[in-house]
Prior knowledge:
Elements: E1 2-4, H1 25-30, H2 33-36, H3 53-57, H4 66-71, E2 93-95, H5 96-104, E3 109-113, H6 118-130, E4 135-140, E5 155-158, E6 176-179, H7 185-210, E7 215-219, H8 231-244, E8 250-254, E9 258-260, H9 268-283, E10 289-291, H10 292-304, E11 311-314, H11 316-323
Parallel strand pairs: 3-4, 3-6, 4-5, 6-7, 7-8, 8-11, 9-10
Antiparallel strand pairs: 1-2
Helix pairs in contact: 6-10, 7-8, 10-11
The structure holds NADP nicotinamide-adenine-dinucleotide phosphate.
NADP nicotinamide-adenine-dinucleotide phosphate binds at residues 114, 116-120, 140-142, 161, 180-183, 196-197, 219, 221, 256, 258-259, 270.
Amino acid sequence: MLESVLFESSRLGERQKCEARGMSPQASSSSSSSSEDFLPTSLRSGALRCTSENTARRSIPLLGFPLAARGQEKVPGMGTTDEGAVTRDKCIRMDLKAMEENYRQRNRTCFILGSSGETGKVLLKEIVERNIFSKITLIGRRQLTFEDKAYENLVQKVVDFEKLEEYAEAFQGHDVGYCCLGTTKAKAGAEGFFRVDHDYVLKSAELAKAGGCSHFHLESSKGADKTSSFLYLKTKGQVEAEIGDLGFERFSVYRPAVLLVDRQESRPAEWMARTFLGAFSSVFPTAMSIPITSVARAMLVNTLQDGEQKVEILENKAIYNLGNIGDKK
Ligand SMILES: NC(=O)c1ccc[n+]([C@@H]2O[C@H](COP(=O)([O-])OP(=O)(O)OC[C@H]3O[C@@H](n4cnc5c(N)ncnc54)[C@H](OP(=O)(O)O)[C@@H]3O)[C@@H](O)[C@H]2O)c1
């Protein structure tokens, strides 16, 4: 099934129209073979095809992270300009099933940190349902139980995050790593928050890199900024930058706004924000919040794509757009 997706460019101020089968004659003629030449080889067959009146005319890559090609945006603390993190505001059309099959054949393995959390749970469900990895390892501080048979082949590694270096083996042999780990200052205190959201996350990334992981996904936060005077945003920005320096073949940072989810755990402030934002988001879906399902789906879809930048940052709107590709199978 082909899904049409419209990505709007907030920075370029242009609206790119994505059409494939049934595209207008004008768009069709502007979609020259030269634009297809930029498609990753694996995707040139038409499984994943994208045309844009603007991008095609300029022969700019239509997949991957085209802003780098359009004008190299440097994000502070995220390495060199060449590796510069970019936001995702592109126009693509994709056949998720074909992408999944393509990816499945690569026989890749992954681990998930934080799979017991709200985002992690949804991400795990997406990954299991789509069956794109030959092995899935959950790394966490406790053993999880699942009733669904689909989860029976999961590998679980219970680790002590205070002594992570003693658990290096848990991080070995995974191609892809997802990190949805995190706590709050209210729950863990300022020091505890930093330990989890910075120390545990960074150490995990280091062990993953040493263990052969090539693509690391980090769920960070909207507003992450290592120069911020707010502990939360500063910590998120700092860990982003430090993981960026580890030199993963590919590092994908997701910066969601407030997560819309019916959280099991009671977090009154979050509940109030969600109650307000839930209504607000039906009018302005990406202004201040994002459904948690969109974040998980964006991580999944982004995995299936061949990245063209070493480091990429997906801001809330880009996550939302990517996360709305493909309905349930
Ligand atoms: N909530 C929001 O609105 C929001 C918005 C933007 C970004 N984010 C960020 O997105 C990420 C995921 O958020 P979420 O709400 O999905 O997370 P969550 O539901 O709070 O889950 C957090 C995960 O981290 C683990 N964890 C927490 N403290 C730990 C500790 N001391 N040691 C080991 N593991 C620990 C939890 O394991 P246990 O199940 O064992 O506790 C759980 O798997 C976080 O980094 C968060 O800062 C959140």
